[in-house]
Amino acid sequence: MSHHLVAAEGLRYRYPDGTPALAGVSFRIVHGESVALVGASGAGKSTLLLLLAGSLLPQEGRVLIGDFPVTPSTLPAVRRSVGLVFQDPDDQLFCPTVADDVAFGPRNLGVPEEAVAERVRTALAKVGAEALAKRPPHRLSAGEKRRAALATVLSMDPGVLVLDEPSSGLDPRGRRQLIAILTAFTHTKVVATHDLELALETCARTIVLSKGTVRADGPTAELMRDDALLEEAGLERPASLRRCPACGEGA
Fold this sequence. Notes:
Layout: E1 5-14, E2 20-30, E3 34-38, H1 45-52, E4 60-65, E5 68-69, H2 75-81, E6 82-85, H3 98-108, H4 113-126, H5 142-154, E7 160-164, H6 172-184, E8 188-192, H7 196-202, E9 205-210, E10 213-219, H8 220-223, H9 227-232
Parallel strand pairs: 3-8, 3-9, 6-7, 7-8
Antiparallel strand pairs: 1-2, 1-4, 4-5, 9-10
Helix pairs in contact: 3-4, 3-5, 4-5
């Protein structure tokens, strides 16, 4: 499957109680782009990520990964191509050790055991978590859990990395480590986040969602200076782009 395109075309999705989550979302992301999805809680970010990863299927419209629409018949290929990192790492870590969790995906694809071991070593090294390999996930800190969860996805060698609120719960050091990891990932990545500073540092492009629709799509630095847009979407200008109220410098 090609990784040269991630696209949404007229996506609509309603929750079982009838509440609309997405109301006609469309965009195209080319190979190698880093795109932030931002918006207030309930804007549809998490639902959109689940649709991109094939965890949900569109009720109307379609998702394209490469040249193929996401359908029940293409789900195995889609899930090998798109790596989804959940907001809560505990949803991704369930084995006795971190190494077992990182090996789980490749083993279930039938990767030979020697190659599985190499994938585990490589994925843990990419997130700086080699020392965590033999530790039980429930004994890890929030930052360690997040790195371990990311390694479980990287071991599948995805062409598209999709992350839901990756900086949630991280201390400053863990956040800096996350930014370094995301910056080093050279394939396509889509990051849903409330952390607009993280979006500024890791994504050249931002899609602003509001009430299940695309309110804006453009260069991150430009959109983050549009106070009217941010206010409408329930967001605020990042601190690094604000002027000092005392001296007027900055931004």
